[in-house]
Amino acid sequence: MTVMRPLKQIHVINKVIHLESGKRRGCAEHYLGDENSDKPCLILLDLNMSIMNGIEFLQAVKDDEQLRRIPVVMLTTSDEQHDRLYSFNFGVAG
Question: What domains lie within the chain, and their CATH numbers?
Fold first, then answer.
């Protein structure tokens, strides 16, 4: 809701797909790895996710030849400087 509300207010018409992370079926990693799924033009990624945290997911995306060019924006409430440094070291867009 925190993301969807402002997108609606500025009339973004792009399809938004909300997925949980992790390595189980139906999660973001599975969706992005499925060649039949539409690839996003942008990934909004939460640092604090279950099973696979945001840094791990970001690393997996950037290690994938097909996905690495998709810009990733990391969302976090963390004040930890190392979280931000890790994110930028793995190529987060913002």
Answer: 14-89 (3.40.50.2300)
What dihedral do alpha carbons 28, 49, 45, 18 form, nearest 10°? 50
Reported as a single tens digit per residue, the pLDDT across 59-79 is 888 999 989 999 999 888 878
Q: Measured between alpha carbons, how far is residue 41 from residues 16, 17, 51, 77 in Å? A: 10, 11, 24, 24
pTM for the full predicted model? 0.82
What is the Cβ-side half-sphere exposure of residue 84, based on CA atoms within 13 angstroms? Answer: 7
Angle at 68 between CA 8 and CA 26, to 5 degrees: 60
